[in-house]
Design a protein that fits this description.
Elements: E1 14-20, E2 23-26, E3 52-59, E4 67-75, E5 85-95, H1 113-121, E6 138-146, H2 152-156, H3 158-306, H4 314-334, H5 341-350
Antiparallel strand pairs: 1-2, 1-3, 3-4, 5-6
Length: 363
């Protein structure tokens, strides 16, 4: 078989429980293996009108209820063939299907107290599968049906078995004759020991009566303690009622917190959009800065080839470019409808002398 690990584990301790009617048999547990090989054989007596055989794959747990990984369902042919021996399924790989949580409750082998406690406190629903892996593995099985009285191996060895039983009976008869005297002596010794044991038992009976009297006194004390325990239980129930009220208040507070958390999530989504816009604006500004840098490099190259232009130094041009870049960032960020007087003076300061000056708009 190939199977996944339970609870997200990298390995498992799998075994198979075979169920036919009320009959259940388990294979041995193979520790820490995802591809176990059991080579197990199970035999059931046929039940009239019952043609379904179920194989449940479990992951063995030491300190908790075993985990149900999945199941395989086999169907016997209806009606059964008349042959003494026939094969229903011959060494076939069958897919393990997911189970519902209620499947484990109907198994006789898993109706212990630990399972009932686990069932009472589990948080998943009976209409949900225990595991949702894409594949739960496969199991190779073969099914053969036969009539017990016509089993070939029993028919073939029938005479040999009878002779062997006859020889064993003769041997036992000889042993009985030789051991009869020893048995008589042993019984006589045991009878003497039984008499002595009876005398000792009578003495112990007297002691037991005195202990019984003490037990009665202890029972009275236990009844008194039981009464005190009932009073404590009544107070505990009252505390439980108060605790349930507190739980309702906590649930209401949690719902309010969830609503506030949803508001924060929506606010964070809006901030992410604004951040994306700011990043786009930053990228555009960087592209503009690179463009200005390239133009500056071209101007440096031209100045190197043609000599100075308009008596401007490279440092002067860098200062003007830096000032105009700052103005560009401010305009890009603020989006003003009309350039204010302070920004107009700033742009005129860093513009080239032969460029037209910005003027104050007349109203």
């Amino acid at each position: 078989m190939s199977c996944p690990g339970a609870d997200g584990k990298k390995t498992s301790d799998p075994y198979i429980l075979v169920k036919y009617g009320d009959q259940e048999l388990k294979t041995r547990v193979i520790n820490e293996n995802l591809n176990p090989v059991w080579r197990s054989h199970v035999m059931f007596a046929f039940i009239e009108d019952l043609y379904e055989i179920e194989l449940y794959v479990f992951d063995y747990e030491n300190f908790s209820s075993d985990d149900l990984l999945g199941k395989v369902t086999l169907m016997l042919p209806d009606p059964l063939p008349e042959e003494p021996v026939f094969t229903v399924l011959d060494r076939a790989w069958l897919k393990v299907e997911p189970c519902f949580t209620s499947e484990q409750d109907k198994l006789n082998s898993h109706t212990n107290m630990q399972r009932r406690v686990t069932k009472a406190i589990r948080i998943f629903h009976d209409d949900a599968h225990l595991y949702k892996e894409d594949t739960l593995g496969e199991v190779m099985v073969s099914v053969t049906a036969f009539r017990l009285e016509e089993l070939p191996a029993l028919v073939r060895d029938r005479e040999t078995t009878i002779d062997r039983l006859r020889n064993r009976l003769t041997h036992h008869r000889r042993l009985s004759q030789s051991t009869l005297a020893d048995t008589t002596l042993r019984l006589q010794a045991e009878l003497g020991g039984a008499r002595r044991e009876a005398e000792r038992t009578s003495k112990e009976l007297e002691g037991e009566r005195s202990r019984l009297k003490r037990k009665d006194d202890e029972e009275k004390a236990a009844r008194e303690k039981l009464k005190q325990t009932k009073d404590e239980l009544r107070r505990a129930l009252e505390d439980k009622t108060a605790l349930e009220k507190s739980s309702l208040k906590l649930k209401a507070a949690r719902d309010a917190f969830d609503e506030e958390l949803d508001d924060h999530k929506r606010a964070i989504a809006g901030l992410k959009k604004e951040l994306s816009k700011a990043e786009n604006a930053r990228d555009a500004a960087l592209m503009s800065q690179r463009k200005v840098g390239r133009e500056l490099e071209d101007l440096k190259a031209k100045r190197a080839n043609d000599g100075p232009v308009d008596d401007f130094t490279i440092e002067d041009l860098q200062e003007r470019i830096h000032g105009l870049t700052l103005a560009y960032y401010w305009m890009k960020r603020q989006h003003p409808r009309v350039c204010n007087d302070q920004m107009r003076k700033h742009i005129n300061k860093y513009s080239l002398p032969h460029e037209p000056q910005l003027k104050l708009q007349e109203t």
